Structures are given as structure tokens and as C-alpha cells.
Amino acid sequence: MKEWVKKEISKEVDNNISYLKEILKDNSDIVFREFYMGKWKAAFVYIDGMGDKLLLDQFVMIPLMKNADELKDAEEMKDKILTISDLREVEDFSKGVDAMLSGDTLMMLEGINKAYVIATRFWPARGVSEPSGETVVRGSREGFTETIRFNTALVRRRIRDTRLKVVPSSLGVRSKTDVVVMYMSDLVNNQVLEELNKRLQKINIDAVLDSGYIQQFIEDDIYSPFPQVQSTERPDVVAAAIYEGRTAILVDNSPFVLIVPATLNNIIQSPDDYNQRWMHASFVRITRVFALFISLILPCLYIAVTSFHTGIIPTKLAYSIAASREGVPFPAFVEVLIMEVSMALLLEAIVRLPRPIGATIGIVGGLIVGQAAVTAGIVSPIMIIIVASTAITEFVASSYEITSAIRMVRFGLIIAASIIGLYGIVLGIILLTCHLIKLKSFGIPYLAPAVNPNLEDQKDYLIRMPLKFFKKRPIYMNSRDKIRQK
Q: TM segments (predicted)?
């Protein structure tokens, strides 16, 4: 795309101001402040609401206007007068205007064909609070915010190592969104890092408004329902991933940080798995995997058993199911479909509505509408139990993307079960397993460490062994330094 800002900076301040007013016209929030610094004319340009006026007044304008007579040359002001710690020079307008649009102040001096960028970013920002989507019983209560510099500081606080690298860049031709890649130079898999940089450089879009934009561009398989990039709001999760040799991607204006490569095991884990004692953590982890499997097959298993394989049901249970379905005009497949679609709509409504109203909608939809459906004979009571159990078990994973993927796969299994019963379920699970085995995230198998088992990685799989047994980093990540505990 064609560059819209010229590069040459004139030695005449008036020419520069005229040019900036022309390209920035019809913007009431752009402030142009012209003044004299002794015998030299100077000018500031900043955005009202994004620049720190107090800093600009006390540490820039007052010293310049009071002490400029002592200078022999205008350029000496940055070394002898200004008390600003963050000041840099730019030799073309494009970089200066980009910095000014990001909240910094652009300063120009008469007789100098370059500009100065003063760090005055000071916009309203949300404070650090507990992430609502990844709550823990024991662990940090800090979560990322929409300000990228706050987020890098939260990670820095947990990694006090000179080998931690924070590499900045910008994405979006028009938005020029700040993006930071964080990794440990002596741990990171260089092949993964190079591949990530290639994929980021290929992104050519007008605006990057959230980390979700980048996630969709760098995924290996865009047609898979399963996320191949881990996203989190927790600094401790990011720090732990970096210590394993993985790479984090922080995006300005987004509280969600991306981590690559990602495996299914990484995504469904919780920070509680490491903050609690190993027996408790292992029990909860096994329960979580079992619950996700139940949420995947429970509705389709009900269809297959009641429609095709009634002989495998105990006699008393079969009578109970038949009695509960008496008067229901729909077959089991339609009954399940109605309830699954209703549950999906209810969950979507709860997410989109304000929290007080959303909680009310959840109670009304879950109790009153469900009971009314049973009373009207549209669905059976056992169907309500199955759908409720499915909803409870699918949300044991902290990742909303995983629960969405399981819901999509479940619909496919429901259709397969309605056609050929248990054979359809088995065939669907086989196809799903083949897809997951084939799936990769930046060259790392998605089902690792299950697909390339070794004793070291099995210590942190279904059963989480005591921390003193974690002598090495995950083998499947191919980190450069394998030892993490001596």
C-alpha cells in the first residue's frame, strides 16, 4: 500500500506545521503548540487525551523557555536542558507521525531537518484485575489489561532474566498496532521462532484490533475446529510457557496473550494443576479429561441406545426411559437436537447480555423453559438431565475455544449416531482421533506427549507427578536447554 506521509522533514518549522495541518485536518483532538525557545522557533504536536500535558509543561516547555538563552545551538537542548528520560530522534515524518498517533509528542525545531519524539503516552487504562475467564482456587489474581506495556511488565515481574527477549513490531497498515514477541533466547526452539516471524510478516491487513486477528492468520489449519494457538489472560501462564521454551505474542488493546506452539494438553490445563499438591492436581486433571469425554458422547450415546441398541439397556431402565418419553412426539434425534440448539442459544444469550441480566436469563432459560418443555411434552425429563449434564461437563476446561470445538464435534456425532447408532459414534471418534493426530502447531504434534510418549513427558500428562520429579523441560517442545531442575 502507498505510504501516505512524506519522509522529508524541513528545516522550517512553519513548513512542517503547514504540512501536518494539511494531512491531519478535520481532527479536533490534534493539538499544535508553537513557541519560541530563545531565538529558535519550536512546535509540539500531540493528541489531546493521549499525551501527558503535565509532563510536557513541567519538564519540557518550562525548561526550554527559561533556559534556552544559554544555548549556542538548538540541538544542545536535548543534552543540557531537557529532563526527559525517554527521547529519541526521527529523520522522517512517517515515523514521527506514527509515534504521535500512538500518544507520544512530536517536537520540531527551527533549522533542524529532524524531529524529536518525546514519550508522553498517558491514556485512560483499565487497572490490573483478576481475569474472569480463568479463575483459580490457589494462585495469582492478576490478569492482563488492554495496555501492552503493562502486560510486558507483568511478565517481566515473573521472569527476572537477562535472556528474556521482548521484540517489538507493528501490524496493520492503518492501525499500526503494537505487537511484542517474548521468549527466552537460550530456551526457544529457533525453528518455531523463525516460522512465527515469517507468518507475522505475511500479515497485511488494514487493522489488527485484537490478538484474535493474529491467531487466525498464524494457525496451521484454519479448517480445524480446535485452536492451535493457546490464548490466556494470566501472566503466570505466559511466564510458565516461556520457561518451557515457548513463545508469547502480546498485542496492544487486547488482554489476551497468544502462546505458540500449543498442544491440546496445554490448552485444557489449569494453573491450579501446578499450584496444588500433586495428588489433588492429578485427580482434578483426570476428572477434567473424563468430563470432556462425557460431554462429547453423552447425547449421541443416548440417541444410539434408545433408537438402535435398546437391547443393551437394563430392563428396568428401559421401562423408565420409555415411560418418560411417553407422549413426546419427536424421535430421540430431534429431541436432542432441539435441546442442544436451545442450550447453545441460551449460552450465547448469557454471554452477550449484561451480567445481571445474563444471570437472570440463565435461571429463566434453564429452569422455567426446561420445565415448561417437559410439561408440554416436547422433550422428556431424562433429556433435560442429559443436556444439563453435558453443559456442566463441557465447561470444566478453562478455554472457551475448546468447549466450542467440542460442541461442534458433538453435533457431528449426534448426526452420525442418528444414522447408524453406535457404529456412527465409533466411526466419528476414529475420524476425530485421526484429525487430532494429524494436526500440528508450528511443527509440534497437537496430541503431544501422547503421540510421542517418553517417560519424562508422561510425568506431566494425565497424572501430574510431584514437582521435584520435573528434571527436564517437555521433550516434545524441542527447547534448546533441556534441564530445568538440578
A: 289-312, 332-351, 363-388, 408-432
